[in-house]
Amino acid sequence: MGELDNLLQRNRDWAERVSRDDPGFFHRLSTQQTPRYLWIGCSDSRVPANQILGLDPGEVFVHRNIANVMSHGDLNALSVIQFAVDILKVEHILLVGHYGCGGVHAAMTGTRLGLADNWLRHVGDLTKKHAPLLASVSDPSLRHARMCELNAIEQAFNVCETTVVQDAWARGQRLTVHGWVYALGDGRVRELSMDVSAPEALAPAYARAVAEVADVAARGRRDD
Prior knowledge:
Blueprint: H1 3-21, H2 25-31, E1 37-42, H3 49-53, E2 60-65, H4 75-87, E3 92-98, H5 102-109, H6 116-119, H7 121-129, H8 131-135, H9 140-160, H10 163-170, E4 176-182, E5 189-196, H11 199-219
Parallel strand pairs: 1-2, 1-3, 3-4
Antiparallel strand pairs: 4-5
């Protein structure tokens, strides 16, 4: 059996197992999509949104790219956010980075990856913005962890500033943006105090979240 044949067999085994455990599962899944959450995360194969959150297919809308970047020029990401907010009416947007992110590491060290270097310029700009904070961390692995946190916070900030989210808040739609980071080492998500439900809450939440990262950097470590 070839590699692809093996994948197809695994799919059949999974479908049969799900149907056996919950006979109505695929019918429900095919007739509706009503997620409450939009996950914007990294393309890293070790960070599967549904499994991390313990949710079934159909319960979380997902967008992923290298280093979980939210660029205001990225029509793909903006279209996903618009569909999730305006059509699906999600109540939470989860911007989730992860410790050990190769994209963040490349941006920090100047490692050339190819075409992706241009995309990671967004993260590289953040390393310059937060250079004093990062310079205060002597251990390279901890410095990388702090940058993974800062990147998640900054990208969550960018989500909040999109016209889609701003318009949703203006019309009174219930919507909260969260900045999180996921730890590959134990499978747990860490909150970063970046939780925003209204335009006026954005600046205070951002300042608080960055201050917490700075405090962690001064104390020496946080889960990574």
